[in-house]
Amino acid sequence: MNTKSRNSTPSSDHAVRCAEPAIPTRRRAFLIIGALLALSLASLALALSIGSVTIPLADIVSALFGEAGDTSSEVVRSLRLPRALAGFACGGLLAIAGALLQVLLRNPLADPYILGISGGAGIGAMFTILFGLGAASVNAGAFLGAFAAMLLVFGLAHGDGSWTRTRLLLTGVIVAAGCGAGVALMLSIAPDNRLRGMLFWLMGDLSQSGEPHLALGVLVAILLVAFPFARELNLLSRGEDIARTLGVRVAFLRRGVYFTASLATATAVTLAGSIGFIGLIVPHLVRLASGNDQRILLPASALAGGSLLLIADTLARAVIAPRQLPVGVLTALIGVPVFLFLLARDSRPKH
What we know:
Structural class: mainly alpha
Largest sheet: none
Radius of gyration: 22 Å
CATH topology: ABC transporter involved in vitamin B12 uptake, BtuC
């Protein structure tokens, strides 16, 4: 009788396995990552090839790995490659930020802009554009505004130490609304010759993205920092009580997730403006294929988000060439039907 009782008592390892999401097989994980890597390379080749002048794939390879000198090499190396890498980095950062915030808030509607960081960046960018400062000043103003909004939301939500998901979410929504009012005020008083640039920034634009090295470095650093905490994130996604019971330092992890997602969002918004739907849609699409294991979800989201933004930016340059559309318009046009499909799929009765 005692033996049966001991055998029927679940061990702590069994509790951990029950709390963690189902983990895809190693083969399936490799297939998902491999497919997304192939999609990333294909979207990069598409971005380097398509434009006002179409460049064949063979010329792209020679331009990237051969000696510079002809017109094709200059176009690829100086114009299209920096923009493509910046777009990939921004898409990856937004997708990772969305995935992390959906874990932190346990809300499938959470996206990188829900905590007011984009609004703060918009205030800083609109202020510098309003006074006619250069592109470097716009990037600096956007980053400082995003950083100030991040600290403001964290300080107000933390309060007396009782930081809850609801309090954080409400604080972010209120700060975002206030920043939106400030942006609307500056748009209403801006002269006509500055208004177009302000609107393009607000809708997302990669034409002034500049050097992509910093954004790529931040993307790699965030993946390296977040990946060792994938098990803890898996447990946190099931609830704070479960995570705390199984030994996760919940307060430390929540602060780390918040600041990591905020840094990713601030970097992407500084480089490309407000680009919507990437951080909301991409984590959902990746979960359909890979499940909710953060060891697969985070790198897969980075690859999928970068690829999606690259494809959208290529379309933005090519649809009405030689004129360009704001890339945020294309991501919204892609994201809205995808999101409606996900809603319809989740609303179906399950047997």
